[in-house]
Design goal:
Elements: H1 21-29, H2 40-44, E1 48-53, E2 59-66, H3 69-88, E3 98-105, E4 114-120, E5 126-133, H4 136-148, E6 155-158, E7 161-165, E8 170-171, H5 172-178, H6 187-204, E9 214-220, E10 225-231, H7 255-264, H8 267-287, H9 289-300, H10 307-321, H11 332-346
Antiparallel strand pairs: 1-2, 2-3, 3-4, 4-5, 5-7, 6-7, 8-9, 9-10
Length: about 350
């Protein structure tokens, strides 16, 4: 593993950034910003809590909350309406058989989320969604994931509140412990997806992708299984000044994954997979060109990181891409846009890795 690994304990806690008017207008245009029947403050008015225990009997970071008996019926109905807005654009007629089974709260992290467990009364099939404090960084991260990754995301904002769908999958740290060397998984396919995920995070500047901030989806195929890695924490979108913070391979928590790729991939093969994902990202950006252009225009005028972090990152990216264009960027949004423009200029010919870095992507 390279010596320039990211030490998370040296990273200061990221502040929460408000949703500015231009971003709110963007969200409203694309039906992401809606009037919702429940506020975050209303959910905070719980009366009791009980620790939530996992299936193995171990305590979690979550607590199950309880509200006044006289408030529960209307609260549950309003939460069902939010779920209907999130999933079927508000068509409550197909949601009438659902019920709210449990509401959990987690005080850990910036967003202090509530997790709502909703169940189908006909077949007992559960689903979850989250209600959190809104943060512009997270909103940009969710929207960039929707536009530039192979994954579509549903989320809604309302005032200072953010509603997100659940992202299913095996937590990355659990995957490393229990699945990484499983005989049913083909090592090349796992390594290939790690390279692609590494590249997606880097180009769109999604940071802090330690193993417990992403999930792994295993999809059976007619010949072996396919792997998809999905980010599930978007708080660190375009905030940190260190270039390696946006390369998952450099986190010490991800060392087993980096070594796995070095073991199973030749450099020429990893470069092929890297280029494949770059090409796919450009294709996605072209399909959503108008919407992505609008988003990046808003993001380019939004101060979602201190100037010193922007300056530090632009210098690191300029050195990485051997391009002085990054040095003219004044915001994180401009850096994301310049990363994509750099791909457009260089696609079709190799981009040499920086001297002294061992990269699997």
């Amino acid at each position: 593993m390279p010596g320039d690994a990211v030490n998370i304990h040296q990273t200061q806690k990221k502040p929460s950034y408000p949703i500015i008017g231009e971003l709110r207008a963007y969200l409203h245009r694309y039906r992401r910003d809606r009037e919702l029947p429940v506020s975050y403050e209303r959910l905070r008015d719980f009366q009791e809590t009980a620790p939530l225990i996992d299936a193995d009997g171990r305590p979690t970071l979550w607590e199950t909350v309880a509200y006044r008996a006289e408030d529960m019926r209307t609260l549950n109905e309003d939460l069902k309406r939010i779920y209907a807005l999130l999933k079927v654009d508000g068509d409550f007629s197909v949601m009438a058989h659902l019920y709210i089974d449990r509401i959990d709260f987690c005080a850990f992290g910036n967003s202090q989320p509530f997790r709502i467990r909703i169940v189908n009364a006909y077949n007992d099939n559960p689903d979850h969604f989250y209600i959190k404090k809104a943060d512009a960084s997270r909103v940009y991260g969710l929207e960039l994931e929707h536009l530039l990754s192979p994954n579509r995301l549903s989320f809604l904002t309302c005032g200072g509140m953010l509603v997100e769908e659940h992202i299913p999958g095996i937590p990355g740290d659990v995957f490393v412990e229990r699945w990484l060397h499983h005989s049913d998984l083909k090592p090349i396919r796992v390594a290939k997806e790690l390279v692609k995920f590494n590249e997606r995070c880097f180009i769109r500047l999604l940071g802090d992708m330690r193993s417990y901030n992403f999930v792994v989806v295993i999809m059976p195929d007619f010949e072996d299984a396919q792997i998809r890695i999905r980010a599930m924490d978007f708080d660190q979108q375009s905030y940190n000044g260190r270039k390696n913070y946006y390369l998952p391979q450099f986190f010490k928590e991800n060392t087993p994954l980096a070594l796995y790729c070095l073991k199973h991939l030749r450099y020429e093969t990893s470069l092929q997979y890297q280029r494949e994902e770059q090409t796919l990202m450009l294709q996605r950006s072209e399909i959503a060109a108008h919407r992505l252009g609008h988003l990046l225009q808003v993001m380019a005028h939004d101060r979602i990181a201190p100037d010193e972090k922007v300056h530090q990152l632009r210098e690191g990216l300029a050195e990485h891409f051997h391009s002085e264009r990054h040095l003219h960027c004044q915001t994180m949004g401009e850096l994301v846009r310049e990363n994509l423009e750099t791909l457009r200029r260089h696609i079709g010919r190799p981009v040499a890795p920086p001297a002294g870095e061992e990269e699997f992507a």
